Amino acid sequence: MTEKITVKLFASLMRYLPVNNTKSHGFDHAIHADTTVGQVIDALQLPREGLHIVLLNGVYLEPELRESTPLNDADVLSFWPAVAGG
Amino acid sequence: MSWTKKVLRINLSAGTCEAEPLNMEWAELYLGQRGLGTKYLSEEVPPTTEPLSPENKMYLITGPLTGTMASTAGRYSVVTKSPLTGAVACSNSGGFFGNEMKCAGWDMVILEGKAASPVYISINDDNAEILPADDIWGKSVWEADEWLHSKHQDPQLRVAAIGVPGEKGVLYSAIINDLHRAAGRSGVGTVMGSKNVKAVVIRGSKGVHVDKPKEFFEATNAAKAILAGNPVTAEGMPTLGTQVLMNVINEMGAMPTKNWQHSVFEGASKVSGEAMLEPRESDGKANLTRNGACFACTIACGRISTIDPQHFTVKNREDLHHSYHGNSGGLEYEAAWALGCDTGIDDIDALTYANFVCNEQGLDPISLGSTIAAAMEMYEEGIITKADTGGIDLSFGNVEAMVKCTELVGAAEGFGLELGMGSARFCAKYGHPELSMTVRSQEFPAYDPRGIQGMGLGFATSNRGACHLRGYTVASEVLGIPIKTDPLVTDGKAELQIGFQDATAAFDSAGICIFTSFAWTLDDVAPQLNADSAGEWTAERLAEIGERVWNLERIYNEAAGQGAIADKLPPRLLNEAIKAGPAKGKVNGLPVMLPEYYRARGWTEDGVVSEETKARLGI
Ligand code: SF4
């Protein structure tokens, strides 16, 4: 069965948004039962060295867990480059 | 030698302006700016002084790097006793005012006493005068700025001024320099108003001298290369400014919403840094026109924005200052949060307008937005009614109501004077102090410490009342700078917070911007100071200075009745769990962290600075 997650790209990673996605940060992405975060990164051709903050359903995903963590239907996966403010 | 070693002491009661030497023994121990200003305050102003009395003093003070070519070296601080908190106040500002003071030959300008009628201070190198300000008393900062520039016939004149709220006792009035840079927090502008001082204007032509010019050139260039090579300071901050945080904090479920009843705001992305880049329908322009930089800054995080000309706040409003119809200082994250998420408003033009009002009239947008949000909760709960608000429907999300309240506080009129007390006094007046989201009567910034545990400890122990700029563990807990820690646990947060607090105090005393610390450590600051100022400056010595500054502030606060007794968070953060999102079910673990913090600080278990710690730090 095909499932889908929401991927969100922020800050300079917005340049990797699908072309028709100009107004929002999020878009649907189809996955299979055993798709991992690493596979989504590959499928979207995101630059690994530029993925500084990765949140899975709002919770920080440690770099060493990113490749192997499996995704579930309706998960929200958000990406930022290195950012800061105050 | 980058201290000028000269202080300008202005006694407003006596009408005198006198030069005196800077106390260099103290400078060795407290560096400059925040540290040295606090040392002067603690020696000259008894902690029990009434903040709005002539006995309080104000220290406008630079650091040893201010005015040099070190990156971000335009900073100055205003140190005084705060009328909002009753604790030590130290508000730091960029722009071009601090460097001008240094170029005029002064490390510090002290304002003491009270003028008999409205005045402004004019400083032109060695010449200082107290001049009448009757023509600009009652005017906004922007109007005063224009008048002063025209009167002095000098486009290079640097102006720091207060607006109407500062004259009329609004307790979170700011001092604005260069039109939209603020010594923003704790009501330092209110103290200036209480002295009948409208503005300080400075023109300096002396330049700044460093100890070892060649070394200094090399050290500052090396440090600039670090900023240019770091993705945060080279790309993130110039592109999106502090507003890049809006989506990060919201997605992780730590976005204080509707007076901290919720921790996720649906409209956050509409008022985010990314949203500021989107073209709008009316004229095809984005909210953000360009970024901007303070003196000598190679980061340039500043926002220059416009309001949609079709928006109700500015359309057909001939009465407004012309800047509302053009470019001016745009939204920072804290302002967008307080005026927006905390009040439930996602209208980016209304927020930009309210932010312009804060700049024009000299208001702290964090305290203003938070006080409006607390009033909104009280209105929705029926604690206050339209009879109290002057007929305003203060429901969460009511854009017109937020705009009206902002204008009323800006004019210091009607219900605006009530809101001008700040949230702690406002909520207490109506019998619900628990609804005020404050520490030491100062409003929180935009991070829910139930979802970012270390910030709860930081807010509770912050010497100037709740603040993000005293120990920004968000950098570690959320952003992974310098290392990532888990925001939902309390383990290790006491030490983490102390490390941030002490390093920040050192940065704040040096004359540079705290945002450099996203890329620099004290190891990068030390070589710049070494070449700038005679003496041996190491990272260890700077960290110790930071610790000394922190402890001195604490000792002052203890004697002012703002020590351990005020290390508290509102009950909402300790007892009401986050309702939804990634941090669901969490409260802040302050009761666990605070004893660890006192121990690690070398204080007594009651939170009092111990005699051993004082002796170790030479206080
Ligand atoms: S980083 Fe931003 S606030 Fe700091 S000095 Fe530069 S422009 Fe000013």
Q: Could you give a quick summary of the protein structure above?
A:
With 86 residues, chain A is of the alpha+beta class.
Percent of residues of chain A in beta strands? 25-35%
> So, CATH architecture of chain A?
Roll
Stretches of chain B where pLDDT is under 50 for at least 5 consecutive residues are: none
Beta content of chain B: 5-15%
Bin the helical content of chain B: 25-40%
CATH architecture of the largest domain in chain B: 4-Layer Sandwich
Q: Superfamily at the CATH H level of chain A? A: Beta-grasp domain
The neighbouring-strand order within the major sheet of chain B is 2-1-6-3-4-5
Number of domains of chain B: 3
Count of individual beta strands of chain B: 17
Structural class of chain B: alpha+beta
Largest interface: A-B, 26 and 43 residues
Question: What would your notes on this structure say?
Answer:
The complex is a heterodimer of chains A (86) and B (619). In chain A, strands 2-1-5-3-4 form a five-stranded mixed sheet, with no helix packed on it. Chain A starts with a strand and ends in a 6-residue tail after the last strand. Chain A has one domain: Ubiquitin-like (UB roll). Chain A is α+β, with helices and mostly antiparallel strands and 86 residues long. The mean pLDDT of chain A is 93. By secondary structure, chain B is of the alpha+beta class. Chain B folds into three domains: 198 residues, Aldehyde ferredoxin oxidoreductase, N-terminal domain (Aldehyde Ferredoxin Oxidoreductase,  A, domain 1); 180 residues, Aldehyde Ferredoxin Oxidoreductase Protein, subunit A, domain 2; 165 residues, Aldehyde Ferredoxin Oxidoreductase Protein, subunit A, domain 3. Chain B contains 24 helices and 17 strands. In chain B, the strands form four sheets. A six-stranded mixed sheet of chain B has the order 2-1-6-3-4-5, sandwiched between helices. Chain B has a six-stranded mixed sheet with strand order 8-7-12-9-10-11. A three-stranded antiparallel sheet of chain B has the order 13-14-15, covered by helices on one side. In chain B, a hairpin with a 3-residue loop joins strand 10 and strand 11. Chain B is globular. The mean pLDDT of chain B is 97. Chains A and B meet through strand 4 and strand 5 of A and helix 8 and helix 9 of B. Iron/sulfur cluster (SF4) binds next to loops of chain B. Iron/sulfur cluster binds next to loops of chain B.
